[in-house]
Amino acid sequence: MPIGVDALPIETRALARALIGHVLVSDRVDGRTAGRIVEVEAYVPRDAASHAYAGKTARTAVMFGPPLHAYVYLIYGMYHCFNITSEPEGEGAGVLVRALEPLEGIALMQARRGIAAERELCRGPGRLAAALGIDRSADGCPLLAPSPLWLAQPVRAPGRIGSSRRIGISRAPRRLLRFYERGSPFVSGPRNLSP
DNA sequence: AGGATGATCGTCT
DNA sequence: GACGATCATCCTC
User: Fold this and answer.
1) Which nucleotides of strand C lie within 7 A of protein CB?
2) pLDDT tens digits, residue range A110-137?
3) What is the CATH number of the domain that holds A180?
4) How many domains is chain A built from?
């Protein structure tokens, strides 16, 4: 069941933390896949590491649109990264979802990824997008309304949330804007750092 | 266990 | 024309 409109904050950092434990569901013609969010990164307003930093462009337009929509971009010519937009319309910001704990449609994820190991299916932004069948066609998709890509209530309360530097960025590298469920084996980077 | 490398292309300079 | 909010593979320790 989709979550209510007011179930999540839209301030970027608060949203990032609140997303941990929520479930992302992808409904496609070949079936449903779903996973529990265990790792995210916040890309806040006026953040030098954010795609929105240089201003609104065709690619980043949805980052400046209403919150809780999908921002999906192609990286390194071959992977997709899935983000959830944040802040009121007009602000360019979002939350990158970096890892999921697979919950539903495991066999379909395995087929899409070409691997069997459950732990590796959604461990990393490019991997989870592939496992859920997310590509640029999902860009701008609302995540609350009935939609092929939507957020559901947590199935289990999150454990303690840790924070760290963001992964793979060169600008604003010291900001602690990566959040993850401590100790989860499905987290992609360091997973036992700060409280 | 950890570092280097190649794949591959849309986007912005 | 250079460069990624990455990943899989290959190498060395």
Assistant:
1) 4-8
2) 999 999 999 999 999 999 999 999 999 9
3) 3.10.300.10
4) 1
